[in-house]
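#data-curation
PF: Archiving a pair of folding outputs for the training set. Convention for this channel: one message per protein, sequence first, structure tokens after, nothing in between. First:
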Amino acid sequence: MHGDSTSIAVQDHVTSDSFRSAVGSFCTGLTVISAIGPKGPVGFTCQAFSSLSLDPPRVLVSVGRTSTTWPHIKAAGRFCVNVLAADQMALSRRFARPGGDKYAGVGWSCPPGGSPRLDGACSWFECAIEAEFDAGDHLVVAARVLALDTDADRKPLLYHRGRYTSPGESMPGPA
């Protein structure tokens, strides 16, 4: 509605904080991007994941430029996108932190020549890196989907306005 006095004022100067606040109104899923690095499995939490093409199947992943994990994944040339389930909030937090053995006590499997697949994920996508693009403080990675699987009975873990949630319910605590 135009002219509604309850609408938010238009900002003519976009700051990082105002942008983060506005983008936070968009609900996203949470994933863990995983690969086998030179010293074993590596991974990081990523909420900037989307489909790119159905034919051929391709996805996009956005990676922070300061990521210390991405160089290992890029060198591997392939990765797995693990779509986290509603009961995997602890995994999201674990893989969002830098350093440490993120896989300690975590159930996962890895097919020969593949990337780590986290137990209990809603779905996973085994991907081969095709291109990387400069995107400000992030890199955008386009990847070809080589294999996938999904568990239609699992509800996804979502992120909205700085909080974890799942379809139809709220979950406590900021990330």
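PF: Second:
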Amino acid sequence: MDLADKLIKETTTMAVYRRLYDLVLSGRFPPGEWIRERELKEMLGVSSTPIREAMRMLVQERILESVPHHGVRVKELSLKELKDLYELRAELEGMAARLAAERGNSSHFKQMENLLNLEHAHRESTGHAVDAIELNNRFHDLVVEAGGNLALKNTLHHLRAGINWIQVMAWNRNKERHALTDYQHRGIWEALVNRDPQLAHARMHEHVWDTISLMLNSRQEEASEQAGESDQAD
């Protein structure tokens, strides 16, 4: 294989990797769903080799999991794994907010303010959970960007993979979550604009921890409902 062919192969693999990563992140492939090579070939229009290599990369990153004699599926987090993940995320998001308060500029803060207005308008109109979570993620991305730490940005982006679908289910169960998120985001933004790193950290930490509490409760309710349906079937 010459250099040109090698570069094309690597480029295709990374393109497939990013596309599959985004599909998992968006909830197109929810936790527990099997990833079929044939389906991806039809969806992405590429050969088997880059698909297999991209899937192997995602297995190594624990976004997908390989089950012997069955195939590859989106990793489904247990309640313990979910809690551990959000304990870490709460600390890192808090750090991002602290850095944003110290390093952010007026342009960053103005973009956040515009996004807050969009969040409010969305809540007053449709209130659809998928769109609300997308706006939520954009706000968090802006905070991280304002902090200017690329390693932190990449780490948080990785932690978010595979969680959006769980968030959608949790937010659909609790219609008040949209309003609370709007309120908490505005409080975080005010702390950033006022250049208060400690307050920004505390408010972001509380916001993320409220999210994990909601998601854990939702998962427990879902498990109870499934157990009840099973008992009725018996």
